[in-house]
Prephenate dehydratase (Glycomyces luteolus), 305 residues
Amino acid sequence: MEFAYLGPRGTFTEAALRRLPAAKTATATPMSSIPEVLDAVRRGEVDAGFVPIENSQEGTVTVTVDELVGGDPLVIAGEIVLPVTMVLASHKAPDAIATVASHPHALAQTRGYLRRELPNAVVHQALSTAQAAQRVADGEFDAAVCAPFTAEAVGLPVQAFNIGDNPSAVTRFVHVVRPAAPPEPTGNDITSLVVYIEHDQVGALLNVLTELAIRGINLTRIESRPTGEALGRYAFFLDCTGHLADARMGEALMGLRRICADVRYLGSYPRDNADRPVQPPQGLSDAAFSDAAAWLDSLRGTGNA
Ligand SMILES: O=C(O)C(=O)C[C@]1(C(=O)O)C=C[C@@H](O)C=C1
């Protein structure tokens, strides 16, 4: 099993990949951008990819979502949620720092600290926190915002710990594969979808949400992304609690298929979350669905009941 991940070595992505059960015995190859990781999966050069998708403070990693919404189909087979603790890594004391570099998400998560403590420093974007740290070690910039383990790996002293504006910030990473059957249901799963609605139709999004709500499907995230066709053309990226194998999820997917211009299934996978699973409401369990199906069969005279 071979994984590609957003590198270089020392990124938060690599730290999260080490926690993924499916990657325990896998080889892991760092790549320099998210599209490179996903294209290596699409081309079959690796078995799987691992990339960030969402941060609790800064929101979506749009490159990842746009690749999943619009590129050749891929599916998500797993997720890891990792606390992201940032440090200021530099050989210089904070008052001597003129330039600071990091990944745009890490810069956004430390915006308050940087404005308060380094108001005159020029901020530069890097491809990842680890690349920023390496460029500081190489003398290109004065300071990097990165993980404590990254600073240590490149031999940079830490000038300030825990500089994130929100100390409980987490980033969610996804394990991505070519279209394949999902892992077995665990009772606490997410199904990701992209729905393309008919344009200029009153209530189109409400109709999508209704198909989910009446089957007791809970949304943990909804995101609209431009399709690129024209202004006002959006696709909706949905994370729903439940698994493709659940009767209510199957019914909801069929409902969406009937009313949407297109539906892209992006995988069902175990949720990395300590919260209790969202239970199906009364009358929407798999048992309730099979009971109702048996009843209908009996009315039609087609069942065994
Ligand atoms: O630069 C890294 O270390 C990454 O793994 C990328 C990334 C991101 O894209 O959000 C991951 C976690 C942090 O939120 C900041 C950066």
In short: Residues 20 and 127 are 23 Å apart (CA to CA). The domain at 181-305 is CATH 3.30.70.260 (Alpha-Beta Plaits). The two ends are 47 Å apart (CA to CA).
